[in-house]
Write a structure and sequence with these properties.
Largest sheet: none
Order of helices and strands: HHHH
Strand content: under 5%
Shape: globular
Length: 91
């Protein structure tokens, strides 16, 4: 599991972004190494996913505020990522 932080910088997230960038690079290399064995390697790297800590750390945060910051008009939800991960792990 990676994040948009692995490709785009945000102030104050250098360590987190570094770990996500490492996951992205490792996954690319692993995909090349496992290609001959017909093993696929995927990385899920979501953008903004609404989690409970958003509401706890910022009392002014609402779903509407989150939705307004996303070009698609809706912040992602944990189940959105879960459904994708389940699909990618299926055969």
């Amino acid at each position: 599991m990676s994040s948009v932080h692995g490709a785009v910088g945000f102030i104050g997230h250098s360590v987190y972004a570094g770990t996500k960038g490492a996951i992205n690079s490792y996954s690319r290399e692993l995909a090349i190494e496992l290609c001959e064995k017909h093993i696929r390697v995927n990385v899920v790297a979501p953008g903004s996913i609404e989690v409970e800590s958003y509401f706890k750390s910022d009392p002014s945060y609402t779903r509407e505020v989150g939705n307004s910051m996303v070009p698609w008009g809706r912040v992602g939800l944990p189940e959105d990522v879960g459904y994708l991960a389940a699909y990618l792990m299926s055969d």
